[in-house]
Amino acid sequence: EKKKQYMGIFSKKRHGDMLATDDEGRCFTWRLENFSNFKLGTTLDSMNVIAFTKAKFHLHMTIDTNGNIGLYLHYKATGIPKYSYYFSNSKREIMRQHTAHTIPYNTERCGHWNTCYRPDILEFIGEDNVLFVNFCFDNDSLSLARKSQNNLEVTWTVPHLFRQVLNPFSSHGFVHEGVLIGVRLEVKKEAGANDAFASYDVRKIKDLVFFLFSRKRDVPPHCIELLDSKGTSIAKLDRRETSGVQTLTVSKEILWNVLGDDGDLRVRVEITCRGNPIDALNALSGPQSQQSQSELRGGGQAEPPRTVQIGEKKEEYVVFHGDD
Questions:
Q1: 268, β-bridge pairs
Q2: Do 183 and 147 share a structural domain?
Q3: Any idea what the CATH number is for the domain that residue 22 is in?
Q4: 3-state DSSP call for residue 124?
Q5: Same structural domain for residues 278 and 157?
Q6: Are 110 and 202 in the same domain?
Q7: C-beta neighbour count of 308 within 10 angstroms
Q8: Hey, what's the torsion of the CAs at 142, 151, 302, 300, to 10 degrees?
Q9: Can you name the residues that pair with 136 across neighbouring β-strands?
Q10: What is the three-class DSSP state of 127?
Q11: Are residue 132 and residue 158 in the same domain, yes or no?
């Protein structure tokens, strides 16, 4: 077994290797050898590393007594940047990506309690028995603007679209009239339905699918438009007068012809406003706002986020729920 690392007499045991994979301090890989040796009821801790913000952070992985695997972040400052991660194996196959799209501004600890199931991970890593956690502080951005009394404009900018992992990829969350909403991008492969375990290859993407998602309630009527960095329209989905999810599907070929392999994409969404105009602007996570990640009551009031206690110190971590 990979030897456990120690940082001082009274410090936590550290597991595996945590290495930067870029020069900016955004992307890291946590390598865990002999993963099957980690039993139920175990908490694993990565080494501390330094983010692009100059703040230190490390990851925790929990394997609960039912085999649910969670991944948590301890960021040694408030204002945790939006992040995404996915698991991969020695064959470079990957599982679906998770995004922490709406993080409470005043917390240093957060994470997903159930990203996958231990037996599925063991099948995924196979005889090599090595699990990779590919973690990245995202570089996309979200802006909000009230264009009229009846319309909120949301612009999601994704730098270097085809150099991102889009399996799937989600925007920051925002709150509109008491509803937590995000913009999501899924990919369809040439072969059809996505496999649970498969390598990620941009060349095999057939279509890109854009839509809004909401945890609790229907998404209000909206339209979606894709633009290049100069503001030229690439594709558009017109507004439907009824609430609910709409999908804008665009072939990769169309986007590639416009953006190339490193162009930026802007996703512009216009959402119908029905309530107080002031409420529509009170809505961004991360640095842009202090609206917390939370379950939303029917009246639009935020409940305190649920927490779990992790490790010997029983430190509290905010838990993300649902399809995050």
A1: 155, 225
A2: yes
A3: 2.60.210.10
A4: helix
A5: yes
A6: no
A7: 17
A8: -160
A9: 27, 84
A10: helix
A11: no
5 residue type, one letter? Q
Q: What is the pTM of this model?
A: 0.85
106/37 same-domain check: yes
Give the total number of structural domains in the chain. Answer: 2
List the pLDDT tens digit at each of the 324 positions of the chain. 444 444 444 467 889 999 999 999 999 999 999 999 999 999 999 999 999 999 999 999 999 999 999 999 999 998 999 999 999 999 999 999 999 998 988 899 999 988 899 999 999 999 999 999 999 999 999 999 988 888 899 999 999 999 999 999 999 999 888 888 999 999 998 765 556 677 888 999 999 999 999 877 788 889 999 999 999 999 999 988 878 888 999 999 999 999 999 999 999 999 988 765 445 445 443 334 433 333 333 333 344 558 888 877 778 888 886 555
CA distances from 295 to 115, 134, 210, 275 (A): 19, 27, 24, 20
Domain encompassing residue 275: 141-288
